[in-house]
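Hey, can you fold this one?
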Amino acid sequence: MASELAPFVPPHCPRSGCRFHRSSDGWRWKRHGTFTRVASPHRIQRFRCGHCGHTFSTQSFSNTYWLKRPDVLEAAAHRQLACSGYRQIAREARCHHTTVMRHSGRLGRLALLYLWHNRPQGLVSEPLVGDGFESFAFSQYHPHYLNLIVGAHSHYCYAFTFTELRRKGRMTAQQKRRRAELERACGRPDPRGIENGTALALKLAAPEPQSLVFRSDEHADYPRALARLRREGYTIRHEMTPSVQARTANNPLFAANRLDLLLRHNSANHKRETIAFSKLNLGAIGRAAWLIVWQNFTKPFSERHGGGTPAMRLKLKERPIPIRELLRERLFPTRVELPEEWARYYWGEVLTRRIPNARRHRLKLAA
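Sure. Predicted structure:
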């Protein structure tokens, strides 16, 4: 029991309305008793803010805050990366699959905050590789596109954005009629979505106008996206590689091709002909964000030869960050100012066309 009551120093007031929420300089607090709970640790220390008077506990700074099954969070974090579906994870954790879905959403939100809080600062020091990862949510009539920006040498994923697509490819006459019916009822995705998403992803990766080397395939939307950035003061050299070129380590686009492979290999919702496909666009975004955090900060450059993580190659971290450590500290959206696009992902503003009344993230205290 003594280890459960080890001294804990709260880093700041967890209440966003308190002036000591962002900075603890001059902050006063005092201990305010304890309470017990069913989950471990069973005894939790409480505190009271000396400024706003609100009480809080050590759990207020934990990613398992407000969770009835805190043990599921880490299990879901590992199993998602092992290509398990929600129901498979739920059977192993002995809980309902909707519990795993809520934990998965929390992991996705944590991933967005962690990526932005620990992003590289200053000018981009390596060529950037852009690529799009195509999948779908709800049904194959609603494909989407993840615009990925990856460092050519470090393999660090600097940014990503989400774009809805119109179903394309070979279709029967019946499928074309069905697509037309859905577009009349739900609307048609923006035909310039990839162009807009690529330009936005590049601005997230390099917020300030600077000189960039951008590598991509011969997709027609990429030159238009780069033209937008050039008008805003960026100097960009565009190097294109045909998509039919062998996707080996010698391919100039290998960094992005590798991330595509990891997304397809480690995510159950992106497997070919799977029944575990994402039902919501937000589900696809959250799982992708969590895999990108793991790829950037935890996974070694090579499973066989090591070589450090992408974050270590950029000198962002000195060692790989284990998943348990990624989950240790709760990040607050009121302290980590996400860019507008990622804030939309965090607060659940990216809707699924066939589910217009899906629940948004509106919890006041929990992550």
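Residues 1-5 have pLDDT under 50 and may be disordered. Let me know if you want another pass with a different chain boundary.
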